[in-house]
Amino acid sequence: MDLDLSRLAPPQNLTDDERSTLFLWLFRRIATFRNTKYLYAEQDPTLSDPSRREYELHLQQWADSIVSVAFSINGEPGGAPCPPLDPLTETSTAHLRLPPQEAIDRFLNCLAFLHIANSKEFSSLTRSFLSSLGSLDERLIVAALRNPKRAIEETQKLAKAATQKQAKEGQVLRMAGVGLAAVAGGVLVGVTGGLAAPLVGAGVGTVLGILGVGGTTLGLLTTALASSSIITGALFGAYGSHSAGSSILRHTREVKDFDIVPVHSKDNEHEGLGVRLCVSGWLTSRDDVVAPWTVFEDDGDDILALQWEVEQLEALSDALMKLVKTNAMRYVRVEVLKRTVFAALMASLAPMALLKMKEIVDNDWMNSKALAIKAGAVLGSLLEQRAFGHRPITLTGYSLGALVILEALKHLASLPPSETLHSVQDVYLYGTPAPSDDMELWTSIRRVVAGRLVNGYSEDDYVLGVLCRLSSATWAVAGLQPVKALGIENVLCAVEGHTRWRAEIGHSLELSGVSGLSAERVSEQVHTDLGHEEEGSEAAEM
């Protein structure tokens, strides 16, 4: 891809007033973002007062670091020191006249790149916040960190073209000493990815100076490239997107089958700045560990799938198919679609029918549910140790896969806030077999998620209704109804029966506004799975 480093520099054509307005806008937006996170922490009854103060302290430190870098990038408007982000900071932005979105995006990309370089991580908070303001060119950021020498060479070509254009127009070039001054000032320290630090500094300093970048921003950019190997080592972790599975066996004593597998084949050069970990809820075959998640494009985040207890989940799939074909369940389905109340419906079923249904529930469903809880604890431990690197991770799952994720989040919520603040970006749960009225659970996991926490549910999931009623004697299930906790987004999905989540997961993600999906693959998923269901139904009736 094109590695023009000037695209990671702030916009050069803004007036002083526009730069000041841009900084003020970001300053007030991050105050709003911080205040919302404070509110989530206030709602969490599991946090002690010292833990809440610790959470607020680390959140404030993160927000201050964003503001500090933004202030430096923007040329330190007015020459005054960076203003403090205090609890009473004004948050209104409606009246501000912003520069064009293209200039905002350039500013945000520079901010993301430099904050990653400064902190040696891409915090889930940083990504969630900056993505809410504009578009990040994460592929360029990764490419520049992975290939600093090539990035400089390509930018040198642009700089040469710029000097030739200036010479033709009779302009005087002023480029001497800019990059070398940054090096002499002690900006560059450490070993680079195969390139000596002075060469990085001199090269990038000179070419970016020609293209109009100077001052503090130039020093920060040269530092980022000089320490690129250190940064990428921290970002992608010991595991990366390919070796995670082979390195986690020591965490899996409680679960005999647990692995991380890539959904798409990628080399290190094309690793993303984020990770999406997907968890299936039952398996018609081993292929279903990965197959439902191929609806995601392969040119963004690293898409990984969690493989857990394959044999048990295959047995569960067989049991669910038997369950939905019983006469009792066919009756339940018809009545549910008529909007008959679940409680009255279950009371009307014959005792023998209930016994047959409960036998399936007590065996395969309860066994699988117990293993999901154990797998979730293992996943929580991996997230705690940042096994996927110091970059944001998004968790997506359906059915018992959603329960695995929920258990992992419960583990994170039990840890000191400083250890969990920067890891999880977004969470998407569909058909979750967990109580919807456990406010302590939902408020605690809301706190550890930096961005969106979505509960996808279906009022027509008669199978989940029966499973949860027979196994835990409750109708208050997140997969059947909204979760009424602050900060939880509830999405009503058109899923008729629990066994349909596999076919509808792509469409449900679309309804939830998830990015990075292939519309063509989503459509193929629905039609392919419908065909398989019809074939299975015909075989069962013959």
TrEMBL record:
Database matches in Pfam families: DUF726 (PF05277)
Location of this chain's protein in the cell: Membrane
Reply yes or no: does the keyword Metal-binding apply: no
Membrane topology value: Multi-pass membrane protein
This protein's record includes keyword Magnesium: no
- One GO cellular component from the entry? membrane
Q: Kindly give the InterPro entries that the UniProt entry links to this protein.
A: AB_hydrolase_fold, DUF726
- Membrane-spanning residues: 175-197
Per its UniProt entry, which superkingdom is the organism in? Eukaryota
Q: Which UniProt keywords apply?
A: Membrane, Transmembrane, Transmembrane helix
Q: Which family does it belong to?
A: Belongs to the TMCO4 family.
The protein in question is named DUF726-domain-containing protein
In its UniProt entry, the species of origin is given as Mycena chlorophos
The uppermost taxa in this organism's lineage are: Eukaryota, Fungi, Dikarya, Basidiomycota, Agaricomycotina
